[in-house]
Design a protein that fits this description.
globular; 45% helix; 6-stranded mixed sheet; 8 helices; alpha/beta
Length: 264
Amino acid sequence: MNEQPMTQARRRRFLLRALLDENRDFRGRRIPTDAESQWLMLRGLMNIREADPVSDDFLAVQDEYLKEEIASKGITDVDDLTPLQPGLYLWQGDITTLRCDAIVNAANSGMTGCYAPNHRCIDNAIHTFAGVQLRRACDCMMAAQGHPEPTGQAKITPAFNLPCRYVLHTVGPIIQGDVTEKDKELLASCYRACLTLAADIQLESVAFCCISTGEFHFPNELAAEIALQTVREFMTQQTSIKKVIFNVFKDTDKDIYTRLLRAD
């Protein structure tokens, strides 16, 4: 008898059962019958899962599942984008669907992702669609470092199931009250650190999210001004970096970057 094909529905149930069974608090929990509820449960379980080893069978099924999910959202290739200025691009969309050399993740100092189930932050999205390997890689990296990641620096990891090649993780400044000169310099340092790491391994295209403007409360307009100034200064150097994409999700950020990029 021929084995049934591994559809997305079967993959999803396989992954759900594996994640439920490995956690004593969730063993025996009923899997919802509808696809949307199953996906929310799966994503939530992936989000809270510690950076423990996982079986090759799990990874094989997970990788096929995530790649098909990302493909169904639609992949955008950086080569199909049109620059607003030489080497500078603006793109509104889901950064987990962008094919380029590296995307930037706005991380926290723990650097192992967002553990809040189904949280809407970019850190959660990137770790979800990259797969559980990303948290494992980040955890090993941070264990070797031996201390939390300082603000304004950056780390690089493989992207695993994402259509980009690498993920650059950086910790932006958290704003509590007025923005200080130190805050501004730390944000600029995030952009420089990411570009320097990318250039060190001869990457050509890097996509930045709006670092620190979400949960970290950096004012959007000021953050965009710092981002543009820092990237432009870096691009005057002779490096491998040829394309920098400013990825925005909200219309507010799109309007800000459009105005700033077209003002020159």
